[in-house]
Design goal:
Number of domains: 3
Oligomer: single chain
Shape: elongated
Strand content: under 5%
Length: 194
């Protein structure tokens, strides 16, 4: 953490004026790499030993009104409700659903909220249920960095390309180091003979 603070301080100082402090950053970068290198092996073991409880994961993805945002976006996108009004509808729907003891937005609570806000749109209980399903939510997200299937596949493809490129770079570097060692040994022998 001290090194991060040092980097940030140097970065701020650059706007004031250039000085030679930035020359020391290369040593800090090398130290950071050296310190964090063991974490790669720990992470590899974590991923190798990781066991996913799909039932628990599915349950956690549905509770605590996690689908409220997707319903709000659905109201805006499908029915042209303004974002401000859709947010107010969802705030009320969450409140009413909590009063009912539910952990998801109920059809009754959203219908009551829409009536109170004098928003006349026709929704069904099936659509309210569908919009809160994690699988449906993932199909609706398309921006970079979202967990949609398309974006995850794109990211995996990119990581695989980088991994192949990095492996090639490492292989070339290893060969170069072996050639350099051979050259050094050859030079040592010549110097000893010399």
């Amino acid at each position: 953490q001290g090194m991060v603070t040092s980097f940030l301080s140097i970065g701020k100082a650059l706007f004031i004026g250039y000085n030679r402090d930035t020359q020391w950053t290369k040593y800090w970068i090398m130290d950071l790499i050296e310190e964090t290198l063991p974490s790669l092996f720990v992470m590899a073991d974590i991923l190798r030993l990781l066991q996913i409880d799909r039932d628990r994961m599915a349950k956690q993805a549905r509770g605590e009104f996690i689908g409220a945002t997707s319903i709000m976006e659905w109201l805006v996108r499908s029915y042209g409700v303004s974002l401000r009004k859709a947010k107010m509808v969802m705030e009320r729907a969450v409140k009413y659903s909590e009063e009912e003891g539910a952990e998801e937005i109920t059809f009754g609570s959203i219908r009551k909220s829409l009536q109170e806000m004098k928003i006349d749109i026709s929704i069904t209980s099936q659509s309210v249920e569908k919009v809160q399903q994690p699988g449906w939510v993932l199909t609706q997200t398309h921006s970079v960095g979202t967990p949609s299937e398309k974006r995850v596949r794109e990211h995996l493809s990119s990581l695989r390309k980088r991994m192949r490129r990095d492996r090639q770079w490492l292989s070339n570097g290893k060969k170069g180091m072996e050639r350099a060692k051979e050259w050094v040994l050859k030079m040592e022998k010549e110097l000893i003979r010399g």
